[in-house]
C-alpha cells in the first residue's frame, strides 16, 4: 500500500465525505443485508455495477462496489469468504467503510485529511481484492464513488432500492438503478437486468493426453502481452502467448494470436504438456504461475484435477523481461504507451503533488479556476488535463508558470527534454480527419494557412474510440520518436462540436491560438459542459424543429369532389398518383409540401382517399394540428380520430440506405450538396451575432469567425467519403 497517495482535491473530498455520511444517516443496513445485492448504472449505457450493503451484523458499516464482467463472480466469492476475489477488469472491489476515526489506518485517512472535516465517525475508501493489503482509492475511483453515492442516496430516499439474493451459482435477475444526470438534477429509475457468472473455468475441458503425461518437477510462468503489430482492416489486438521455465527464464512457448481468442491459448498450454518443445520434455509441471487472470480462470479447474498448482502474479519479472525482448525483436515498444513518455511525464507531475502537499489551498484554488468548482466526470482524462494546465499555463507563487518552478527541481534529462518540448508545442483545436485503424490524421482548426500540416499519430486505442470528425483541445508533442496528445478538455464528438466551441466563445475565449493560450483555464469548464450534453437525451426533430411523433389521422368526408377541388386549389398540395398525360380518374393520394429551403421542399404530410374517409400521415403533433385546421375548413370534412404510430417516420426525416452509389451518382450528390450548402452563406448565424456569413466577412473580426466556422463545419454523414464543400464556400465568400 502506498503510504503517500497523491492528495485529493478538497472539493471532491468534501463531496464524497458528505455523501458518505448522508448514506450512513439513511441506515440502509436496516432494510438489506450483505447476502443481498442490487445493480447500478451511472447513465443509460454506463458500466454495470453490483452493490452490496454492509452493516446488518452491526459490526462493519459500508458498501462495496463490484465492477466489470466478473462482478457477479467477485461478489459471490466475497460472500463465501473466499479471499481470492475474481474481481472486475481493474482487479478490485471498491469499498466504503464508515468507522470511528481512531480505527481508520493512517494510509486510509486521505479522504478525512483532504476534506478538513472533524467528526467522530468518518468514511474510509479503499480498494481490496484479497491478494494484497488494501490500497487507498484514486481520484478517478473517488469520482465514481461520488456518483454512486449520489444515486444510491436519492434512490434510498425515494424507496427505489430493491435487492436480489447473491446466491451460490448461475445467472440472476437483479433490480438495477439507472441514474441519469440532467445538469444539476438527477433522475433515478429502476429496471431489472440479468447478471451471469463468467464461468471461464468451465468453458474448456482438459485433454486426456495431458492428464496422462507424467508430472515433472518444473515450474512454468505463463502470460499474454500485446504486440505492436497492426492487422490491415482488422481492429483486433494481436498478442503473444509466452510460457517460460521459472528456473532460467528459457522460453518454452511463444505463439501469436488474437486477444479475443482465449481457446487457442488454452490449447497451446495443454499442447506443451502433451508434445513438449525443444526446451522441455512432455509432461505436467508441478506449478504454473499465471500473469494473465483470464487464462488462469479458464484453466484452473482442469489444472487442479491434474494436480498442477496455480497462482497469480500479474507482474512476473521474468515474463516482463521476455515480453520486452520479444517486442524489441518486432521493432520496438508498443506505440500506445511508450515507457520513456510515461516515466518522464510522471516525473513532471511529482512536483505538482509536492506543491499540493505544502499548500492544499493552492490546489483547491487551481481546481476551482480550471473546473469552475465542479467535480468532473471521467477517469484519468480530467486529472491529466488539470495537471497539463497547471504545469504549462497556471501562474502562482511569483512564477509565471509551474513549468518554471518545476525547472528548479532536479529533473532527469528526459523529463527536462519533455518539458521543453511541451512548452514549445502549439496549443490548439484539432479535428480527426482520417484513420486507418492505427494511424490518425488530425488537422489544426485554428490554422488557416493553405500549407497547414496535419498531425499524424499512431494509436490503436485512439483509433478505436475517436470517431471521425471528433475534436481534441490540447497539444501534440513529439518526444523520443513518439507523438502523443496531452488534453486540456474532453474529447468532443462530431455532433457536439458547434455547441462546445460556442460555449467557449460564451465564456469569453477568442478562438485563435493566442486566445486559447491566454484563456486555457476555460477549457476545464468543458468537462461538466460536455458531460451534460452527452447525458441529455437525444431529440430527433423534423425540418420544422418539432419532435418526431408519427401520427395517423382519420377524417370523414361527405363530398370527395369538393375535397378534391379544395386540394387542387392549394399551391402546396400535389397529387401523388395522378397521371398528367390525360387520365380521367381523379387522384386518390396527395402530398403536402412545405416552403422550399436551400432549394429543396419539405414533405409535410401524405393524404389518401380510402372509402368514405381521408387518411392523413404526418410526423409531429404540430403538423397534425396544422393540417387539421385547414382540412376542417373544407365543407363536408370532419375530424374523427388520430393515433400515434410506432416505427420511423416515412416523411422528410427518414432516408433509406439505397443502392450502392456509382461514380456518376456520387458526383451528382456532391453537386446537389454543394448547391444546398452554398445557401448557408446567406443565412443568419447566431455565432455571427445574427449576421449572415456574407455580411460578416466585411469586417476583420467577422471574417475570422467565418473562417473558423467553415473549418469546423462537419462533413455530411450517411455516405462514406463525402466532404463538406469548404473550398467552394470560401470561393463564394471571396476568402481565397
Overall outline = globular
Q: Estimate what percentage of residues fall within beta strands.
A: 15-25%
Assign the structural class, choosing from mainly alpha, mainly beta, alpha/beta, alpha+beta, or little secondary structure. alpha+beta
The oligomeric state of the chains shown is single chain
Measured distance between first and last alpha carbons:
61 Å
Mean pLDDT across the residues is 78
Helix content: 25-40%
Unreliable sequence segments: 86-91, 199-203, 331-338, 647-659
User: Can you summarize the main beta sheet?
Assistant: 9 strands, mixed
The count of strands amounts to 25
Number of helices: 23
Structure in a nutshell:
The protein is of the alpha+beta class. It is built from 23 helices and 25 strands.
